[in-house]
Write a structure and sequence with these properties.
Blueprint (H helix, E strand, L loop, with lengths): L1 E3 L2 H13 L4 E6 L5 H13 L2 E6 L19 H10 L4 E3 L3 H4 L25 H16 L3 E5 L3 H13 L5 E5 L19 H6 L2 H14 L5 H15 L3 E9 L11 E10 L4 E10 L4
Parallel strand pairs: 1-4, 2-3, 2-5, 3-4, 5-6
Antiparallel strand pairs: 7-8, 8-9
Length: 285
Amino acid sequence: MRVIKTVKELKEFVRTEKKAGHQIGLVPTMGFLHEGHLTLANQARQENDTVIMSIFVNPLQFGPNEDFDRYPRNLERDEQLAASAGVDCLFTPDVEEMYPEPSIITMTVTARADKLCGVKRPGHFDGVVTVVTKLFHLAEPDKAYFGLKDAQQFAVIDGLVTSLNFPVEIVGVETVREEDGLAKSSRNVYLTEEERLKAPHLQKGLQLGVQAAKQGDKSVEEVIERTVSYLQDHTGAAIDYVELLSYPELDSLEKVQGKMILAAAVQYRKARLIDNIIFTVRGEC
């Protein structure tokens, strides 16, 4: 595996791979790799000739009171894990390499960003699409892989690719979970022992809500209320939001019908956890 830290080296690597006729798969990450990231890399390995993984903690998507400085990092360990997953090139730039000077262009997400996590993180998805756009230009991938645990991010990037006609196929990969159902996340390391025992109830609450939605006689409000009630009783965390929206448009719903996402976020003492279920209900409800 080749480890590259500069834009110039990456562009040279990509140029060589393209000249050889190789299809490139890109796996963008912020590092501190876990099984979820490796699942993305494994799928990319199966579907492409060359796999590029990026590790970059992007400051543009962190707000002033968020955890950029304390975001977990372990590059040496990440290099070993990436190599074990069959990554061909690991791109690990620093902030100065990705943003060498103030940009004269600002990207703004005008839809799909004002719900869910976007409500309390203004500008977050502007930062996401900025760095993803740069990575698409640098790596020139044929396919790019994103985990559906952050389903809003996937919806926003889907809109980015469609709106700006990027010649890349984005692939959503199902959430990788612990045996007890907790979604794998780099932030899980911040959970206390007691919080870790209660955290799997986030997914169980969503499952209960989806079950109610599929019964066919529940309103949007009833589905949300049932989910909220369970989370209040079992997670031991403050509820940030519970929402039932169309997917990937993330529009509000008048009735339980079509392709939807039931998503929630809860706040523990040092860890904010998100999770979701994407599902479809056919016919009139």
